[in-house]
Specification:
3 helices, Pectate Lyase C-like, 423 residues, 25-stranded mixed sheet
């Protein structure tokens, strides 16, 4: 007889005498149904073990607060789960066996690896998703573009999730988040994608911490982390971007109006709306790629204490790509405390300023710049082209970085990402 697709075990479940007598009369399959039903009623906490190769979408969707869904070691099928809901103190957890034994979801025959519709108080951890043709992880508010409202209060955590070889071309994202509030992406890894490593559309209160984004030669990699469509209050902290595409971080972008969360008011005054607001990129490391950070129809974006090494074309870009008159230009950005290095000559311009932006509203605090030949008589000329206000003079001297891009020069140690904070 084939094994049941999910094995369930109850933990600390109170049981009356009648319930015990009832349980003894049940077969294995009926016990599974009873466990899931009790979890739905909130009277017990269960652990459900998913065997490799089984269809687990429906059963996992019936889990209740406090339940743990364990994907046993092996290769698993993609899953679409609607309405998965825990509570603040009893989230639902979907996980592999542990950090050293992550479960693997092979999405080679699917458009996605893991799709969550309207999740609430959910933790996903210790899972590897490979070969998705569309998005590796897709989590959204279930609204589509018919009647988008305020972002869904998700309280969703992705922890130690790896997404590999998504796409490889077109609008295919490693992790796609749409219309969600309160999302944490922690210690995740995305390698090889088509669109964005993480794409946020209309998301609020998102933190992306300690993640690695690595582009692969046979994938398009348009952008690394992108926040657009009305996204706000986003923090990208202590992440590493290696050859992460045309724009390693895209603060803003160009979003079709039906996809904004909340919806774009028809009577909004000119210049009062933005693709992204209050996005902070802090203590991150950028290696290669065309550009480290682009500000696109965004307001109050901050890049602070980042290390940027060897970008191919520019360091930063100020762009306007949403030309609806209700949307303001890129404005109010801040760049401070960054360490910017090229192993050879620098690009023609450090900052690409596009039409329709407000470069005079940007502020450059003190940053340290270094490139081959920077000590020559033309050293200051590229810095003269920095837009906006310069609160302090920019620094130009050799930081003497090691193979981890950490500066040895004592005056350089206050610039850049520095040693990773202990966790």
């Amino acid at each position: 007889m084939a094994a049941a697709p999910i094995r369930s075990s109850r933990k600390h479940a109170p049981a009356s005498g009648a319930r015990r007598r009832f349980g003894r009369a049940l077969g294995a399959r009926t016990l599974l149904s009873a466990a899931l039903a009790l979890a739905l009623c909130g009277t017990a906490q269960a652990q459900h073990v998913v065997e490799p190769g089984r269809d687990w979408s429906h059963a996992a969707g019936r889990a209740g607060p406090g339940d743990v869904i364990v994907l046993a070691p092996g290769v698993h099928r993609p899953a679409m789960i609607d309405g998965l809901g825990g509570t603040p103190d009893r989230p639902i957890v979907i996980r592999g066996a542990g950090p050293d034994a992550p479960a693997r979801i092979d999405a080679a025959r699917s458009n996605f690896g893991l799709m969550l519709r309207r999740p609430r108080h959910v933790v996903i951890q210790d899972i590897v998703i490979t070969n998705a043709a569309g998005n590796g992880v897709n989590a959204d508010d279930g609204a589509g573009h018919d009647a988008p409202g305020d972002p869904w209060p998700a309280d969703l955590t992705l922890r130690r999730v790896a997404v590999e070889r998504t796409g490889p071309r077109g609008n295919t994202d490693g992790i796609k988040l749409s219309g969600l509030r309160a999302v944490r992406v922690e210690a995740c890894r995305v390698e090889g994608w088509g669109g964005s490593a993480i794409d946020m559309v209309g998301c609020h209160e998102v933190s992306i911490t300690g993640c690695t984004f690595r582009g692969l030669p046979d994938h398009d990699q348009s952008s690394g982390v992108q926040a657009k469509g009305g996204s706000r209050d986003v923090r990208v902290v202590e992440c590493r971007f290696e050859n992460a595409g045309q724009r390693a971080v895209n603060i803003g972008g160009s979003t079709g109006l039906p996809y904004f969360r909340p919806a774009v008011p028809a009577d909004a005054a000119p210049g009062t709306l933005f693709e992204a607001e209050d996005v902070i990129v802090e203590r991150c490391v950028f290696v290669g790629g065309d550009c480290a950070v682009a500000f696109v129809n965004s307001r109050r974006g901050v890049v602070r204490r980042c290390t940027i090494f060897g970008t191919n074309r520019w360091v930063f870009r100020l762009l306007r790509e949403n030309n609806d008159p209700r949307f303001g230009p890129s404005e109010g950005g801040v760049v401070e405390g960054c360490l910017v290095i090229w192993p050879g000559p620098p690009p023609r311009s450090f900052v690409n300023v596009g039409p329709g932006t407000s470069p005079d509203t940007f502020r450059f605090g003190t940053n340290l710049w270094w490139w081959a030949g920077a000590e020559g008589r033309d050293a200051g000329r590229p810095l003269d082209a920095l837009p906006g206000e310069r609160v302090h003079d920019q620094q130009v001297f050799d930081p003497h970085t090691d193979d981890q891009l950490l500066p040895a020069h004592p005056d350089a140690k206050r610039f850049g990402a520095g040693p990773k904070d202990p966790t």
